C-alpha cells in the first residue's frame, strides 16, 4: 500500500508544475523589469480570430503555423511547453542595466537544444535547466547574480496573458538625471511647461515602488490592468487614504446615450497637495491664470463633496454638449462662481481685448431661468458680433456663444451643470429624472458585469463611434457637402453600436489599481476606422 502511495506522489509531482517553478518567484532585488507571456496558445488563437474577422486572409490554425515556421523553420514549437509561461528578466546593478535572463518552459531538452538553441546566436551565454525551464543568461556574471540574488515578491494579475513588472525605485536616479539635463537647457513656453510636467512626475516618482501592467485578449475584448505600489506614509498614499471606498453614484445620473461618461469619488481637499503642482504648470506659461485656478480649487474644496460625474452626450442641434454633477459639501457655490468670473475678467489678456470690444468677457447671471421647476444660473462668454459679418460668420459666432454657455442648477444637495448646444434640454432631463439614466444603459451593464464584485472609486466609459457621430454632425452643420464627411458617415453605418472602452479605478492599501476593457465590437470599430483612414490616405497619396 505504501509503495502504491509513493508511486502516486511521484506521478502527481512530475505531471504538475511545482509552485517554485513560477517565473515571478525568481524575481530578484536587482530585477528592474520582469515580463511574462502566459497562455500563449490561447493568445495566438484570439489574435487569429480577430484577424479573420477583420478580413486579413487567414484561416483557422494559420497564425500558429506562420509564427512557428518563421521562428523555427517548422510547424510547432519544438521542445517548448507552452502550457507554462515564458519570462524575461532585465537586471539593474551599479546604476546601469547589467544584462538579461530568459526562462523558457521545456518539455524535451534534447529537442529544445538541437532545434531551438542551434538557431540562436548565444555565444558564451550560460544555460541551466531547472524546474522544467531552460534559464538563459546574457553572461556568467548575470547568471550568478540571478541565482544568488535575494528574491522580492511580485504580484501579477491572475490569468493575464502578458504581464510586465517595473521596479520604479531602480530607475529613479536615471530619470532624475534626465529631468535635470532637460531642464538645464529648456527654452520657450513649451519647454517650460514640459519642465514643470517632468518635475511633477519626478516628485510623484519618489513615492512609487513598483508598477505592474497586464493584457489579455479574449472573446470579451482586450482586458487591461495596471497596479502602482506606493511608499506608505507619502503624500500620495495620504491622498488615496482620504478617498472614500464606495463607488461613484452620480455617474448613474448621466444620460443613457452618453458616449463619454466619467465618475469619481476623489476627495478634492485631500488632493490639493498634488493638484497644486499641476496648476503650477499653468503658472509656468500664464502665471495669472495658474494663480486663479489654484485659488479656485482651494475654495471649491471647502464647498464640494467627494462624488463627481461628467458626460459627453449627443446634441439635438448637432453640436457639443457636456454635462456634469457634483455633490455639494456645504454652502452655496454662487459666490465661488462670481469670484472666478471676476478674476478671469481681470486677466491682462481679457483687458487688452476689451479695449477693442467692450463686451468681451465672462458674465455670471444668477437665476437666469427655470427648467423642470428648478432655477438655474448661467456663466457665458459675451462678445460683440463683427460689424460687417456675413451669414456664415454670424452662424459660427452664435455656435461659439451657445457652446460656451454653462447652466448650473442645484437639487437635493447635488449641483448639476450643462454646457453646449443642447444644454437646457439635457439639464432638464437630469433634474426631472424622466430621461433614461446611464444606470440603465448597456455600458453600465457591461461595467457591472466586469467589475461589480470589486470596490471601485472611479468609472469611465468611451465610445469611438459615438464621438465620430457627433464630430460628423458638427462638421455637417457648417459644411453639409463635405465629401470626407459622407465617407465617414457611410463607415459609421457599418460600425457596431454596442461597444466601448471601459475602465475602473480602485485606491486602497497604498496602491492604485486600474482595470480596463476594450470590447470586441469596439476593437472592430477602431480597426475599421483606421483601415478606412489608411485607405483614404493611400488614395490621396496616389492622386485618386
Which features does this protein show?
18 helices; 18-stranded antiparallel beta sheet; alpha+beta; disordered N terminus; globular; 544 residues
Describe this structure in words.
The protein is built from 18 helices and 18 strands. The model is unreliable at about 1-20 and about 540-544 (pLDDT under 50). The chain is α+β, with helices and mostly antiparallel strands and about 550 residues long. The chain has helices at about 1-15, 40-55, 60-70, 110-115, 140-150, 170-185, 190-205, 235-240, 270-285, 285-300, 335-345, 350-355, 390-405, 425-430, 440-450, 465-480, 485-490, 520-540; strands at about 30-35, 85-95, 95-105, 125-130, 135, 160-165, 210-220, 220-230, 260-265, 305-315, 320-330, 360-370, 375-380, 405-410, 415-420, 460, 500-510, 510-520.
Category by helix and strand content: alpha+beta
Number of helices: 18
Q: Could you estimate the helical fraction of the residues in percent?
A: 40-55%
**First-to-last CA distance:** 82 Å
Can you summarize this structure?
With 544 residues, this protein is of the alpha+beta class. The chain is 42% helix and 26% strand.
Helices and strands in order:
Blueprint: H1 2-15, E1 31-37, H2 40-53, H3 62-72, E2 86-93, E3 96-105, H4 109-116, E4 127-130, E5 133-137, H5 140-148, E6 162-166, H6 172-185, H7 188-205, E7 208-218, E8 221-230, H8 235-241, E9 260-264, H9 268-285, H10 287-301, E10 304-313, E11 321-328, H11 334-345, H12 348-354, E12 361-371, E13 374-382, H13 391-403, E14 405-411, E15 414-420, H14 423-432, H15 442-451, E16 458-462, H16 464-478, H17 483-492, E17 501-508, E18 511-519, H18 520-541
Antiparallel strand pairs: 1-2, 1-6, 2-3, 3-5, 4-5, 6-7, 7-8, 8-18, 9-10, 9-16, 10-11, 11-15, 12-13, 13-14, 14-15, 16-17, 17-18
Helix pairs in contact: 6-7, 7-9, 8-9, 9-10, 10-11, 16-17
Amino acid at each position: 500500500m505504501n509503495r502504491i502511495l509513493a508511486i502516486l506522489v511521484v506521478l502527481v509531482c512530475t505531471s504538475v508544475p511545482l509552485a517554485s517553478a513560477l517565473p515571478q518567484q525568481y524575481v530578484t532585488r536587482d530585477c528592474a523589469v520582469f515580463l511574462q507571456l502566459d497562455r500563449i496558445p490561447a493568445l495566438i488563437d484570439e489574435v487569429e480570430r480577430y484577424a479573420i474577422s477583420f478580413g486579413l486572409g487567414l484561416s483557422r490554425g494559420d497564425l500558429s503555423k506562420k509564427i512557428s515556421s518563421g521562428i523555427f523553420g517548422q510547424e510547432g514549437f519544438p521542445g517548448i511547453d507552452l502550457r507554462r509561461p515564458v519570462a524575461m528578466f532585465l537586471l539593474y546593478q551599479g546604476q546601469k542595466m547589467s544584462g538579461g535572463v530568459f526562462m523558457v518552459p521545456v518539455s524535451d531538452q534534447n529537442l529544445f537544444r538541437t532545434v531551438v538553441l542551434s538557431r540562436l546566436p548565444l555565444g558564451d551565454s550560460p544555460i541551466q535547466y531547472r524546474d522544467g525551464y531552460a534559464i538563459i543568461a546574457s553572461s556568467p556574471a548575470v547568471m550568478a547574480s540571478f541565482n544568488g540574488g535575494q528574491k522580492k515578491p511580485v504580484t501579477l494579475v491572475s490569468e493575464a496573458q502578458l504581464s510586465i513588472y517595473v521596479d520604479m525605485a531602480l530607475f529613479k536616479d536615471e530619470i532624475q538625471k534626465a529631468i535635470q539635463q532637460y531642464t538645464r537647457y529648456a527654452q520657450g513656453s513649451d519647454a517650460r511647461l514640459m519642465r514643470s510636467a517632468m518635475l511633477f512626475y519626478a516628485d510623484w516618482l519618489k513615492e512609487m515602488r513598483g508598477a505592474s501592467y497586464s493584457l489579455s485578449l479574449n472573446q470579451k475584448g482586450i482586458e487591461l490592468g495596471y497596479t502602482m505600489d506606493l511608499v506608505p506614509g507619502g503624500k500620495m498614499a495620504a491622498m488615496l487614504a482620504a478617498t472614500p471606498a464606495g463607488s461613484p453614484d452620480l455617474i448613474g445620473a448621466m444620460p443613457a446615450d452618453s458616449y463619454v461618461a466619467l465618475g469619481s469619488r476623489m476627495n478634492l481637499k485631500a488632493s490639493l497637495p498634488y493638484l497644486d503642482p499641476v496648476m503650477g504648470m499653468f503658472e509656468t506659461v500664464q502665471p495669472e491664470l495658474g494663480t486663479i485656478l489654484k485659488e479656485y480649487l482651494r475654495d471649491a474644496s471647502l464647498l464640494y463633496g467627494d462624488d463627481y460625474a461628467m458626460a459627453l452626450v449627443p446634441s439635438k442641434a448637432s453640436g457639443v454638449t457636456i454635462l456634469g454633477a457634483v455633490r455639494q459639501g456645504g454652502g452655496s457655490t454662487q459666490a465661488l462662481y462670481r469670484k472666478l468670473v471676476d478674476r478671469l475678467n481681470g486677466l491682462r489678456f481679457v483687458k487688452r481685448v476689451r479695449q477693442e470690444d467692450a463686451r468681451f468677457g465672462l458674465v455670471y447671471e444668477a437665476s437666469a431661468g427655470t427648467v423642470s421647476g428648478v432655477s438655474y444660473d448661467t456663466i457665458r462668454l459675451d462678445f460683440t458680433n463683427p460689424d460687417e459679418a456675413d451669414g456664415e460668420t454670424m452662424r459660427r459666432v452664435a455656435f461659439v456663444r451657445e457652446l460656451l454657455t454653462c447652466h448650473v442648477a442645484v437639487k437635493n444637495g447635488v449641483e448639476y451643470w450643462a454646457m453646449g448646444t443642447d444644454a437646457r434640454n439635457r439639464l432638464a432631463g437630469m433634474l426631472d429624472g424622466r430621461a433614461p439614466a446611464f444606470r440603465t444603459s448597456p455600458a453600465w451593464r457591461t461595467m457591472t458585469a466586469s467589475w461589480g464584485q470589486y470596490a471601485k472609486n472611479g468609472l469611465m466609459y468611451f465610445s469611438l463611434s459615438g464621438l465620430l457621430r457627433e464630430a460628423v454632425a458638427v462638421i455637417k452643420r457648417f459644411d453639409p457637402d463635405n465629401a470626407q464627411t459622407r465617407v465617414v458617415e457611410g463607415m459609421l453605418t457599418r460600425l457596431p453600436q454596442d461597444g466601448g472602452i471601459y475602465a475602473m479605478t480602485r485606491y486602497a492599501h497604498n496602491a492604485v489599481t486600474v482595470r480596463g476593457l476594450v470590447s470586441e465590437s469596439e476593437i472592430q470599430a477602431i480597426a475599421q476606422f483606421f483601415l478606412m483612414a489608411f485607405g483614404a490616405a493611400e488614395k490621396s497619396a496616389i492622386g485618386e
